[in-house]
Amino acid sequence: MTSFDWNKVIASVLTAMIIAMVTGIAAGTAVHPKHLANVAYLPPGAEAGAAVPSGAAAAPAAIEPIEPLMASADAAKGQTLVKVCVQCHTFEKGGANKIGPNLFGIMTESIAKVPGYQFSQALTAHKAEKWDPEKLNVWLYRPQQFAQGTKMSFPGMKKVQDRADVVAYLLSLK
């Protein structure tokens, strides 16, 4: 190829880049998206006010305690409820860590202390604490409320009886 041919190739590439840049600038000034006042669609598990951005941070919602329900909590029902958790967690003694840690014996562990698992900074901030039923209640209600910035993307369990059943199941894993 001659130098004249190379000049044509380089000029074509530069022209294409300039056209793309000018088109992007023109599109950015021509299009002004209108943000909706209300959320048009909420995916399952999302709360009504959570998706709407606001200027001030919302106060955490009061979480119903599970202590009164623990006497009647059903560990067998809790075991069926955690079936959605097996994608990320194991529950067997000596089970492997997956995306999330093995949860066998979690009630005897300190928070963020499962051997061989790398926890997020949000949970390692709680490593001096131990799991108890009320801490798990808050965690299961909304993990992001317990430890903002956690890697866990689970939206939470809204039914207080379901949370009590899951905690009863986790208590049974010793």
Topology (SSEs and partners):
Blueprint: H1 3-30, H2 75-81, H3 121-124, H4 133-141, H5 143-146, H6 160-172
Helix pairs in contact: 2-6, 4-6
Describe the structure.
By secondary structure, the protein is mostly helical. It has a domain at 71-172: Cytochrome c-like domain (Cytochrome Bc1 Complex, Chain D, domain 2). The chain is 37% helix and 0% strand. The protein has six helices and no strands. The protein has helices at residues 3-30, 75-81, 121-124, 133-141, 143-146, 160-172. α2 crosses α6 (160-172) and α4 packs across α6 (160-172). It is elongated and about 85 Å long. It starts with a helix and ends with a helix.
What do the pLDDT scores average to? 86
Biggest sheet layout: none
How many extended strands? 0
Q: First CA to last CA: what distance?
A: 76 Å
Q: In CATH's first tier, which class of the domain at 71-172 applies?
A: Mainly Alpha
Secondary-structure-derived class: mainly alpha
Shape: elongated
Order of helices and strands: HHHHHH
CATH topology of the domain at 71-172: Cytochrome Bc1 Complex, Chain D, domain 2
* Stretches with pLDDT under 50, minimum 5 residues: 51-59
In short:
Helices cover 37% and strands 0% of the residues. It has 174 residues and is mainly α.
